[in-house]
Amino acid sequence: MDFPNKKKFDLNGPNPRGGAKASDKDSNSDAERLVSAARVDEDSEIELKLRPKRLAEFIGQTKAKEQLAIALEAAKSRGEALDHVLLFGPPGLGKTTLATIIANELGVGYQQTSGPALQIQGDLTAILTNLRERQVLFLDEVHRLQPVLEEKLYTALEDYQMDIIIGTGPGARTHTLEIKPFTFVAATTRPGLLSSPLRSRFGILLRLEFYTDEELLFIVERSAEVLGVPIDRDGAAEIAMRSRGTPRIANRLLRRVRDYAQVRASGIIDLATAQAALTLLEVDAHGFDELDRRLLRTIIEKYDGGPVGLNTLAAALAEEQDALEEVYEPFLIQIGFLDRTPRGRVATRLAYQHFGLEMPRRTSSSGTLFP
User: How many CA atoms lie within 13 A of 283 on its CB side?
Assistant: First the structure.
């Protein structure tokens, strides 16, 4: 559906909690990675076309969908605004898609902005005071919202009011602005950075998990149908298997394999074509690219499998610590190839097996050998 009075703010500004600007959130190398879950410019137009419009069309995230479906039905039956929703989890799993689905299901307006885009109180005041009844306001990267604006948001979320100060000095006075009841949907990849007062304002907290290969298979087949790409089930399964549990990566790989099929094959994506294309793209059976393999091999070959500290590992790979911690490591930990320990990062048995290496036997402080 078309959303009335839809606006999108995309200004870049400094990170109020420290670090780089919004445009620099991911390292340059990550922006160039085919298997990066971070959104790149070429993804935006395609994602709009592939994005499901209704909750019934949304694949995966069964628990989150069930909770959301109940809350939506209850809100619609009462004719009230939905409770405020916090969506959290790794990038590329559908947080923005779920926000638009919430607006679609409620039949209300939708407005989107992001934490780094809001720089002054006037920005937040203008957005909140222009919201329509029961409208959905989606704030991406909520963990990067400036603390002073976060405090102003508390009363808006709780009492649908906002206090502003008019004038300066002895003549300054406080004026309370009334805000129409609305639904605040916030998304973050780092829920641990949210303050307790802000987290307590959300009535619905939904964690998005990595997708299974079966769920990604359905997503690849659906995307291929929407894009008009001929594909068989084996070819779709091969793409799904190498998509790191992330729909955004699955759709990106599908487009690259489609290009290969049109230029080097018959135009149809079958198993052989998918394998050849993904081999050429250097995406292996686990969805690892060269950077993933380099990280694991560095730990195994230079540091005897670990433990190795994050600072040391970042220096050895010439990468930023934030990039390692937020971009490279989560998936490797999720599938059991890497462990985080108090002493540092450790390559697991699966990592050794992946490279065809024998895991060394280590000696404990008591002199006992263990694998």
Answer: 25
